[in-house]
């Protein structure tokens, strides 16, 4: 008899058939006696269709009106899903963001939820109704429609779960959970039963794009148990993401994230004096280029070497900027490499176990992989290596840390 | 410096190009210093697309949810039109029915407007903003989205004009006004500059389908001047529909309406006793057949003849029912004719001028047209004739009553 918030994304409600299948899932769930709030996105393709209409009329549409336009996408889905659920003779009520009283600030297209008045929803749940809420949207204090921006429906679901003090927030996607690493690289990769919020944040930002970072942060802040499940599978357990303390036994490593979207730039022989890091990175940031890993080493003869990574698409631009900077700073040389990959071990277990890093480095050495950069945080170790060793490295690490074996 | 409410239907906003052209019209209008509230329908085809989606999921969609679904159609249009208007650097605000505080009862799919809180709209108009409102929709006192049913956008426009005490409510359509009769039948048919509400009601119900009856009734009740205009024409004057008293000079006849959708049925030699009309029409009504003209004549030998017209599609069904009734009532005979047409002269001038009917009958006699039925009201005379004389009769009447000559 739990209270569950479920969220279905655009692909899961992308056609009348898929909507019918979500309704069937809801009916099965309701029959077990659980209370159910369902958050839905716009049907896949709908948001792009609406955006194309707007841009055909005006290349710079008014943000307020764009939100009025886009909000119709989820409104269509809540109505259709409610119509589908009613076929099972179950009482159901749909609500737009405004009707669900999801109050946001007025930052059109990237609004933030401020509070949710749950009175009406609790009233419906008490009457045994399934409540269907439009994700991605809210209303500001002037009564204007707002949208939450990327990943907004996940955020709506988590915010509702927090406000309703739900037992669980279930995010249905096209994968059946979070894996120890990408199964396309390591066939033995295993679905994780559970994960800590922080681990999910590290895994998400490093490439395992299952959940929007913002919704994980939100869930963590309000301690909402978050479960990732497949919308195309019956009876899957998915992966539950909770606070660290709730887990019975910590595995050393939860997963291996990686990406090959980055390039590395190094400026050699920079005078080692205060303000140098700022003078190197400021022009890069000024060109709107995001920097990921940053490393500075003291070199010989009072100079220093400074290395950072950027997205591969920004590599040539960053290289030109860095060469200009190099002239101004009288640096010795600028070198770069866009055939690199980053591999990261993630796990809260690292905190209490020494030797993870040295094991990682040993395994890579045995594979004859040269480590070009190292960067560590409390629950993550990242190395930058030559791209051609990526698969072999991940496979070796996955085996060495026993990730294929269930840890509970 | 007038306050004008304009309404554009689905065809007028059916594509990004058409929406751009409505925006241009609005900009021109605003530049003249007028205050402007624009009511729009869903883009043509959109409502049917949404209905098809709903029916694919559930042949009997929940009325509440169907309204949530359909209301998105106009919401898309208000956003797109506002985005188009903003291109002219004019301040603009869109409102859904709920945001415009159009309060209705809870009769989903055929809700009736109860009141409109105009505070926000007046506030916007005072700031020089163009206000764009979704037609066809409102909100009930529980906060549920409702739709107004057929012709709902016209009703929204008239209701807003009444609530705002607008100087005029302009209904843009694909014709440039109301004509003395159908120009396809009488090429000399002339656009009327002005018309009384009652005349429009008679002309509309008799076949000149330009405006929804409900919105004309509404305009009449609140005395809102209503103007019919073409959305595809610049600087057209259209036809203004007002209370009778506001017109300087009454023409005898405003227009000639007609239809050929009806069939005539007669039951002869019915005993002339109380309750006979009821016993004849009750089974017809019970079969959901609508009756238009009804005439009863006293016959010879204490019996009576009873004639009525129905839609031609219902003719065979009505004939079978009437034959059954005839047996029960011991009537002499049942006869019918589905090659008939109805011609109606409409004009408030009739009230104060005798002899209109006799002129009409003389003209038809000169054309050798036999009149089969006559029915009159205060501002209308209808005759039923053989369908083959329809065009000739209308042309002769149009000429005889000088309808081609402007009357002001």
Can you characterise this structure?
Chains A, B: It holds the Pfam family ACT_9. Chains A, B: Substrate binds at residues 47, 74. Chains A, B: GO terms for molecular function: aspartate kinase activity; ATP binding. Chains A, B: It is an enzyme of class 2 (transferase). 2 copies of one chain form a homodimer. Chain A has 408 residues and is α/β, with parallel strands linked by helices. Chain A has a domain at 3-173: Acetylglutamate kinase-like (Carbamate kinase), CATH 3.40.1160. Chain A has 11 helices and 20 strands. Chain A has helices spanning 16-31, 46-57, 63-86, 119-126, 152-164, 197-205, 213-222, 276-286, 315-329, 356-366, 390-400, and strands spanning 3-8, 35-40, 92-95, 102-104, 113-116, 130-134, 137-139, 145-147, 168-173, 194-196, 226-230, 239-242, 255-259, 262-271, 291-298, 303-311, 333-337, 340-346, 371-377, 380-386. The longest helix of chain A has 24 residues, at 63-86. The two termini of chain A are 25 Å apart. The interface between A and B is large, with 38 and 38 residues.
């Amino acid at each position: 008899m739990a209270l569950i918030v479920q969220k279905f994304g655009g692909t899961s409600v992308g056609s009348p058939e898929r909507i019918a299948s979500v309704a069937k899932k809801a009916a099965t769930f309701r029959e077990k006696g659980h209370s159910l709030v369902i958050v839905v996105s716009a049907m896949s393709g709908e948001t792009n269709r609406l955006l194309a209409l707007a841009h055909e009329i005006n290349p710079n549409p008014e943000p307020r009106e764009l939100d009025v336009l886009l909000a119709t996408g989820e409104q269509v889905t809540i109505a259709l899903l409610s119509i589908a659920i009613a076929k099972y003779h179950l009482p159901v009520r749909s609500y737009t963001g405004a009707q669900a009283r999801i109050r946001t600030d007025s930052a059109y297209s990237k609004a933030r939820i401020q509070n949710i008045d749950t009175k009406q929803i609790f009233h419906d749940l008490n009457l045994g109704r399934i409540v269907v809420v439009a994700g991605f949207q809210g209303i500001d204090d002037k009564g204007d429609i707002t949208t939450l921006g990327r990943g907004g429906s996940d955020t709506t679901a988590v915010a509702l779960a927090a406000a309703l003090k739900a037992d669980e927030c279930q995010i249905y996607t096209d994968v059946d959970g979070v894996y120890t690493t990408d199964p396309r690289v390591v066939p033995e990769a295993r679905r994780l039963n559970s994960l800590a919020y922080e681990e999910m944040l590290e895994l998400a930002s490093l490439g395992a794009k299952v959940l929007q970072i913002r919704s994980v942060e939100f869930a963590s802040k309000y301690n909402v148990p978050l479960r990732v499940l497949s919308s195309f599978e019956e009876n899957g357990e998915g992966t539950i993401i909770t606070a660290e303390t709730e887990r019975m036994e910590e595995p050393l490593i939860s997963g291996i994230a990686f990406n090959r979207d980055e390039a590395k730039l190094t400026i050699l022989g920079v005078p080692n004096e205060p303000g140098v890091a700022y003078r190197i990175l400021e022009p890069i940031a000024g060109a709107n280029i995001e920097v990921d890993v940053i490393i500075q080493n003291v070199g010989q003869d009072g100079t220093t070497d400074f290395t950072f990574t950027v997205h591969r698409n920004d590599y040539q631009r960053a290289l030109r900027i860095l060469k200009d900077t190099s002239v101004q700073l009288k640096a010795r040389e600028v070198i770069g490499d866009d055939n690199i990959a980053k591999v990261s071990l993630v796990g809260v277990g690292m905190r209490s176990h020494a030797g993870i890093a040295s094991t990682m480095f040993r395994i890579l050495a045995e594979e004859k992989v040269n480590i070009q950069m190292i960067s560590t945080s409390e629950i993550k170790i990242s190395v930058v290596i030559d791209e051609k060793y990526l698969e072999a490295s991940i496979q070796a690490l996955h085996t060495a840390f026993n990730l294929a074996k269930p840890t509970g």
